[in-house]
Write a structure and sequence with these properties.
The protein is of the alpha/beta class and 325 residues long. It is built from twelve helices and 13 strands.
Length: 325
């Protein structure tokens, strides 16, 4: 018999790729989506992957426990992936209370719905490398102490620990993936890799002249979202729930990432990159570098796309978008 999965945040980058993966494995896929007047726009990622008609969208919100209970009762998911969040770090300083309500307490609402309605549901929580913040070790693993440096990271840390708490207190099969930066052509335009690929495409086509960025010396461990959603699925196939770092084990600066993008289209970065101090964060996270050895040994997980190929794929996708329209 096929399994049933419920994905919160299905309209985002990770939700769309995860839905595609689960459909390829024969799952019946339901997606929780926040109702808005731009719902058609929000389905664009599912449409881009050609799976819009294959998933069943359910109106819902992480802040509405009664609605979550009704959804879990109706869907009866074998697996529930909680990917919904206010996920943009910069916005979390402008909306710290909303970020806390959705990204932190929203996790508790989902766990409560599972505990009360269908406690045998396997649960995945999307934790974040931003929880490490002011890093306490050069390479971050599952045992590295956390030091969050933004309201988003603090909220994610609550979601991470409440998942551990429900696992230990109520015996839920609840796992967290501490995912380092993962990107794709479906990444939101507000995130730095997509901002770079989109700007480079526009500059190449004569639609823009410059790319404005903040701290280009920040270092990140970048992988492809398609690889990372595969790790999510593998976690819920294990007999015992646990927490895993998902990363490439390699870090690069924002500037290096920009150089790859500009070079791919034959442009000189010095002619177009502008450093704007207004874009610096109140508290910077200078470097993130994950140790994925546990995911490799226990899950058999490996990355398949290099950072260079990822950035080139994103630039090509944005060039194709602009040429089409």
């Amino acid at each position: 018999m096929s399994k049933t999965a419920l994905i919160t945040g299905i309209t985002g980058q990770d939700g769309a790729y995860l839905a595609q993966l689960l459909l390829s494995k024969g799952y019946e896929v339901h997606g929780l989506a926040r109702r808005s007047s731009s719902s058609d726009v929000n389905l664009s990622r599912l449409r881009w992957l050609g799976i819009e008609k294959d998933v069943r969208i359910v109106d819902g919100n992480l802040l509405d426990l009664s609605g979550l209970i009704r959804t879990v009762t109706a869907v009866k998911p074998d697996e529930l992936y909680n990917l919904a969040a206010q996920s943009f770090v910069a916005s979390s300083w402008q909306q710290p209370l909303l970020t806390g309500q959705v990204t932190a307490l929203g996790v508790t609402n989902v766990l409560e719905a599972i505990r009360l309605v269908k406690p045998d549901t396997r649960f995945y929580q999307a934790s974040s490398s931003e929880m490490y913040g002011l890093v306490q070790q050069p390479v971050q693993s599952e045992t590295t102490p956390f030091y969050p440096r933004s309201p988003y990271a603090v909220a994610k840390l609550y979601g991470h620990w409440i998942t551990v708490n429900y696992r230990e207190s109520f015996g839920l099969h609840a796992s967290s993936g501490i995912l380092f930066n993962h990107e794709s052509p479906l990444r939101g335009i507000e995130f730095v890799t997509r901002k770079v690929s989109d700007s480079v495409a526009r500059i190449k086509l004569g639609l823009a002249k410059e790319l404005r960025l903040g701290n280009t010396s920040a270092q990140r461990d970048w992988g492809h979202a398609k690889d990372y959603v595969r790790a999510m699925w593998l976690m819920l196939q294990q007999d015992t729930p646990d927490d895993y770092v998902v990363a490439t084990g390699r870090t690069s600066t924002v500037r290096t990432m920009c150089e790859i993008a500009f070079s791919h289209v034959g442009l000189n970065i010095e002619d177009h990159l502008v450093i704007d101090e207004a874009l610096f964060r109140p508290a910077e996270v200078e470097i993130l570098l994950g140790d994925p050895s546990k995911a490799k040994s226990k899950l058999g997980w490996e990355t398949s796309v290099t950072m260079e190929d990822l950035i080139r794929e994103m630039v090509d996708a944005d060039l194709a978008r602009y040429r089409k329209h």
